[in-house]
């Protein structure tokens, strides 16, 4: 890293630690030529994040797509947009702080499911039913049972899928 004071290329890292939100690494540097001190931040660039689907296909991470799939799951649910925005930002921060540019779609789906679970259980079930792509009503019933949700959402996954419309919210599809 070139010294911003004298242009010397020899600078040393004195200290290196994560920034407050964990999305960047902050480095204190000093120049071995002029002794000047400066700070650099190293962060993953969102536009470089790639989502790797189960098929191996890579697509650029798209925050708007993620927001759209989440808002479809939350349709007509009594959840403030502010909380949704914070949830999406939280997911994006987690993705950024993983330090990898290639992220499996299952990882993204898992983060969304975890976040929705604490935000709104109905939206969680909707998302899970599409994300997990239950083929059989019995698979879905087993999932609800495992999650202790049998009484809350005795819906057929096909109905939910229809309720969500034709929108693709499954990260495993070639969307
Ligand atoms: Zn210098």
TrEMBL record:
One of its GO terms (biological process) is negative regulation of DNA-templated transcription. Its cofactor is Zn(2+). Keywords: ATP-binding, DNA-binding, Metal-binding, Nucleotide-binding, Repressor, Transcription, Transcription regulation, Zinc, Zinc-finger. Binds 1 zinc ion. A zinc finger (unnamed) spans 3-34. Residues 49-139 form the ATP-cone domain. One of its GO terms (molecular function) is DNA binding. Transmembrane segments: none annotated. InterPro entries: ATP-cone_dom (IPR005144), NrdR-like_N (IPR055173), RNR_NrdR-like (IPR003796). This is Transcriptional repressor NrdR. It comes from Asticcacaulis taihuensis. The lineage of its organism: Bacteria, Pseudomonadati, Pseudomonadota, Alphaproteobacteria, Caulobacterales.
